[in-house]
Amino acid sequence: MMAQYLEIKAAHEGALLFYRMGDFYEMFFDDAVAAAEALDIALTKRGKHDGKDIPMCGVPVHAAEGYLLTLIRKGFRVAVCEQMESPAEAKKRGYKAVVKRDVVRLVTPGTLTEDSLLEARRHNYLAAFAEVRDNSAFAWVDISTGAFHVMEIAQVRLGPELARLAPSELIVSEAKERELAQLVSDFGIALTGLSRSAFDSTGTEKRICDLFAIATLDAFGTFNRAEVAAMGALIAYLEITQKGKLPLLRPPQKESAARTVQIDTATRRNLELTHGVGGGRAGSLLALMDRTCTAGGARLLERRISSPSRVRDVITARLDAVSFGFDNMRLARDMRETLRKVPDLDRALSRLSLDRGGPRDLAAIRNGLAEAERLAGRLQSEDLPDLLANATGGLGRHGQLISLLDEALVAEPPLLARDGGFIAPGYNTELDEARKLRDEGRGVIAGMQQKFVSDTGISSLKIKHNNVLGYFVETTATHAEKMMSPPLSETFIHRQTTANQVRFTTVELSDLETRILNAGNHALEIEKRLYERLKEAILDVAAEIGQTSSALAEIDLALSLSELASTENWVRPRVDDTRAFEITGGRHPVVERALSQQSGEPFIANDCDLSAEDDAGNIWLLTGPNMAGKSTFLRQNALIALMAQMGSFVPASSAHIGIVSQLFSRVGASDDLARGRSTFMVEMVETAAILNQADDRALVILDEIGRGTATYDGLSIAWATLEHLHDVNKCRALFATHYHEMTALAGKLDGVDNATVAVKEWEGEVIFLHEVRKGAADRSYGVQVAQLAGLPDSVIARARVVLDALEKGEREGGATQKTLIDDLPLFSATPVPRPPVQKSSKVEEQLAEIIPDELTPREALDLIYKLKEAAKG
């Protein structure tokens, strides 16, 4: 056995080997040591190898999925080695024959299909990047849903695409593995290198054609050699990991970067589109907008948020679908109730195609298609917009399959086919008979006993069972002679004689015994056979089921966005090909929700107008104190543009958006210690990317450019950046800064306007109004914000002294830095004032003794008068 293990392990050096032994997957040697630590399970030993103990650990087969998930998340790959025959079959080849085993699947992050290993509401992409001469391409597939896409991109765009799709695993040529290792590691993606032959465009084309059973790729469109290489590499890797059992993939869809808004990695992070600041969904735009009822609808929503469209007709069609739901809210809510009953058709279909499914996947297909039929019937009488009409046309096509599955399956089938009991009674006569024997064996035996009593006239005759003889007929010695004489002796065959009893059998009883003993296995074999037939019936129409699933997701998303718009008071934006950007009463959707839930405070809405002429940009230069809401204002306008172009209503009173081609955000920053970058360096790298890429259709939001260096260095960089955006990029932009000197640019550059976030001072404190107004702030109120943050009073007092001196020196124009320092004594020499000890007043003493819940209204009124008198005293 160990020789077999070592041979199989040698063929899968890069993976832990789950070696099936009965009801356990066992691991040995270094695999056992690594797995025991990763899974926190006991490490034992079994036998010796080269004179040393062999480390061993194992996990139960029935619980393997949970252990697999842990290992995958910790960066392992797992080769699952199954027994290909039973021990009884092995013994037929010889007493010491080893059970045949082989690896049936290589489990990697990008090739998961089980529900327990996946997030239902997110795609799990496996991606590949290929270069062929001067061209490069990026392809990705989700084998759990069948989605298959490819696009031509330059290597410099690989990072943004990885940020957009967040694949679990990326396949590259071994020659590119080291070059791309750092980039891929930054995204937490598993990197897999394949040989160059896997990317050979000639061989890969044949691989793709064989998979889809077509003669030429022209049936799917025109692909260059790099795109073919990337797609073919994916299929080659699936052949390796799935051991030739390829998943059910949809025809590849060619995407174009020109059809979607380009959003770089930093912008996705800054705007928290699909992940919040903590790394999970909480606090993200996706979490706020997700009111979908189906897993497919949720995955479609994430795709739309990650890839807003820049094609006006596409955007308009999506908005029309949302408007239909918004205008027909009662109908929309009825349909959403139906959608809530729709299982995940895509993943059930994928598991069935890979032989990893079970009876519940058959039931999921049945239930999902039945709900689709109901939706189709309900919508066919409606005057639908084009997108919903096209989707509805793909729903009601499966009446025959639904009837078959409904007739064949019980309402709630078990998880595994080997458990049996999923075929409905009455569907198959042979199965019903086998079940009757299995479940009613005693009754059948009792009936045969009554027949034998009637035939022999011996009322004491019994049919019994033991482990040696099996079933037998038993009677007393007194009646035995009768049964051994003709004509009964022709039926009853003598088996055994004891002191007081004689035992017989019959051909009929022996046959019944065999059938009873085999009935359970026979029933299970019949059910497995019927399972295969039902599975094939489903896979025969897999393409049509895939279309139904896509249609359900499209309807679900449109109706969920209409529900969201209705409950959150959002409006339909006007989206066109102009360079308009006019938002009235705009709000940040995530911040507004947080305020409502935490304090009940209303969100202060603000207007923004960045509409630009054809030959110029328009920039708002935003000043005002920290904590006043500048960053929120910047982000909300970027989000409103994104939401409009993904096809959603937006949080505003009105919105007119000229299509945005690129979205750039540089808001907030942190050190990148792994690459040796300071906060300022990260800021400059991100700013450089914007200035080098933004076109005249871009929307750019920048916050505090230059703050990470010396004052005049920072001011000069911010100044030059704003001029470049205005003169060269000519884009629409929001530029927040604390460098008030820059407000002078509004008078020099035609496309720059000053705006400020209003505040009010009262008794030395600053009150944030969160209102954006035209004009410039006179100062930043930094000391007041520091006081709100809780800095010690002595520090605040000292800061005011230093600030007054610095401002005075600047006004007078003659004070040098050295003079100011000489005039200001060292902080350490300044005594820290102790806060005075406060004596409690009479009012406070009386209040301390009061229990408000015990006061009547009259007593409370009397108390107020008493406290007023005490305050006068």
From TrEMBL:
Organism domain of life: Bacteria
Keywords recorded for this protein, A-Z: ATP-binding, DNA damage, DNA repair, DNA-binding, Nucleotide-binding
Binding site for ATP: 624-631
Database matches in Gene3D superfamilies: 1.10.1420.10, 6.10.140.430, DNA repair protein MutS, domain I (3.40.1170.10), MutS, connector domain (3.30.420.110), P-loop containing nucleotide triphosphate hydrolases (3.40.50.300)
InterPro entries, per the entry: DNA_mismatch_repair_MutS, DNA_mismatch_repair_MutS-lik_N, DNA_mismatch_repair_MutS/MSH, DNA_mismatch_repair_MutS_C, DNA_mismatch_repair_MutS_clamp, DNA_mismatch_repair_MutS_core, DNA_mismatch_repair_MutS_N, DNA_mismatch_repair_MutS_sf
Recorded coiled-coil stretches: none
SMART domains tied to this protein: MUTSac, MUTSd
Residue ranges occupied by any DNA mismatch repair proteins mutS family domain in the UniProt entry: 698-714
Similarity comment text for this entry: Belongs to the DNA mismatch repair MutS family.
HAMAP family membership: MutS
Function: This protein is involved in the repair of mismatches in DNA. It is possible that it carries out the mismatch recognition step. This protein has a weak ATPase activity.
Name of the protein described by the UniProt record: DNA mismatch repair protein MutS
Organism of provenance: Sulfitobacter sediminis
Chain's gene name: mutS
